[in-house]
Amino acid sequence: MLKVCDLSVHYGGITALHGINLEISEGQIVTIVGANGAGKSTTINAISGMVKKTSGEIFYKGEPIPVSPQKIVRAGVVQVPEGRRIFPSITVKENLLLGGYTIKDPAVIEKNIERAYTLFPILGQRKNQQGGTLSGGEQQMLAIGRALMSNPKLLLLDEPSLGLAPLISLEIFKLIETLRGQGLTVLLVEQNAVKSLSISDYAYVLETGRVVAEGPGRDLANDPAVRKAYLGL
Question: Domain of 18?
Answer without folding.
Answer: 2-229
